[in-house]
Amino acid sequence: MLKPALQLRLGQQLTMTPQLQQAIRLLQLPVLELQAQIREALESNVMLEAEDESGSLETGESALEPQYESTYESPAPSAEASASNEHSEHTEHTDNERAESAEAEQPLDIVEDQDWSDTPVTGQSDTPWSGDDDHSQDFSDARGETLQEHLTWQLEMSRLNEREMRIGAAIIDAINDDGYVIEPLDEIARNLQPELVVATAEVERVLTHVQAMDPAGVGARSVSECIELQLRQLDPDTPGRDTALAIAAGYLDQVAEQQYALLRRQLRVTEEELENALVLVRACQPRPGSSVHSVPAEYIVPDVFVRRTERGWAVDINPASLPRIRVNQSYAGLIGRSADHAMLRTQLQEARWLIRSLEIRNETLLKVARCIVQRQSAFLENGDEYMQPMILKDVAEAVQMHESTISRVTTNKYMHTHRGVFEFRYFFSSHVAASDGTEMSSTAIRAKIRKLVAAEEPDKPLSDSRIAEILSREGVLVARRTVAKYREALGIPPSSERKRVSVR
């Protein structure tokens, strides 16, 4: 028979305090979202105030000083020495994403009583065909004219009558961002009814006026017509113009397949005439609308700056990424113990929590960035081919934090170096075993593949098997399938498509 009883148990469990939740949330926010969060806090909390550039911050819990600096002192070691020192520290894991699932379960490594006073697409482009200390940010006019607005302006400046203007406006509405008419002309005519009854022939006649507008080739209904419109704007005496028009009318497939010998026989032209014609065709823009329709540039604000100094690589938190805030001491000194000041005391506590959370974020970000720079110093010195294999666990063990914390820190955070702006995640990659028992980063292998393809003979491109053989002779043991996977990731077509047949 069951009966009630009292038992005493000792145990430990994690309690997600509001301060811890706030620190975790701020840690994973990118710079722009964090700035918006701080602006919102400044507007809603009277205990917070932003400090202007000329002001001096007070010390202690009432101030946040984000201008941290730490120098990793390294006498610019050679790439070989740097690589050999790092090889023994890497595990056999091949994907740094395995820690993502632990983010919701694992805590942020925070010691609340710790002293915090001691407290960059895009990596480089991977396309195969292709250090200063200035912390200033560049901004451009975000206002951009759309293709429809550009064409409408030209339509209004034309000498068409009111009826033709309405037909032209309907045609412009049917043009996509690439500059092509995507609706049949009879459907455009039906869309004008019942306000305006027009025939398809009349729509086609107005279309010729639209096709004469800038940019050249706009208003075409196919790639062939687009190229033909651009070629017809050339001087009739241009060498190869007539042959180029013939190619645009019905031989673009042969050009795409590089069947130049067959093309020369079909057109009955000489090698020189065909070569001149191909130069004209290749100079045409297959997407004329792209020259007008442009997406406003999205600027990346780096979280840290990495620069070379006489003592090694210096890592600095970007002081322009965060506004400097502090507790308003005038209001804080007026708070008494009465119940009337309960809301002000709550806002004061929230202000202190926010400042402490920002200090935690900066300290953690700096610690992780410094570890990455230390491990990837060979890359900073020599480029992609010297990237060292590194996963989240390596950094987590070095800075004594949990992998989920490292995952938060490295997501949407950017590092400005003399080689460009890289996301923190760019420096993490799987590894491949080398013939001498060491390991090589997959990023370094992709850089080697890109270099081999760029240096290959145009008429004798390297196959995946051949690239694997060359890498094996260099001590990198990769299978043909691995080479194919890396090649596709770089956007490099297979050797059969890269082969260039000379015009004969």
UniProtKB/TrEMBL annotation:
Regions annotated as coiled coil: 253-280
Region ranges (Disordered): 50-140
InterPro entries: RNA_pol_sigma_54 (IPR000394), RNA_pol_sigma_54_core-bd (IPR007046), RNA_pol_sigma_54_DNA-bd (IPR007634), RpoN_core-bd_sf (IPR038709)
Polar residues biased stretches: 117-128
GO MF annotation: an example: DNA-binding transcription activator activity
Domain RNA polymerase sigma factor 54 DNA-binding: 343-500
The keyword Coiled coil is assigned to this record: yes
Keyword presence, Transcription regulation: yes
Sequence ranges of Basic and acidic residues compositional bias: 86-101
Amino acid composition bias (Low complexity), ranges on this chain: 69-85
Pfam families: Sigma54_AID (PF00309), Sigma54_CBD (PF04963), Sigma54_DBD (PF04552)
Sorted UniProt keywords: Coiled coil, DNA-binding, DNA-directed RNA polymerase, Nucleotidyltransferase, Sigma factor, Transcription, Transcription regulation, Transferase
Gene Ontology CC annotations of this record: DNA-directed RNA polymerase complex
Annotated ranges, domain RNA polymerase sigma factor 54 core-binding: 142-331
One BP term from GO: DNA-templated transcription initiation
Family listed: Belongs to the sigma-54 factor family.
Function: Sigma factors are initiation factors that promote the attachment of RNA polymerase to specific initiation sites and are then released.
Protein name: RNA polymerase sigma-54 factor
Gene: rpoN_1
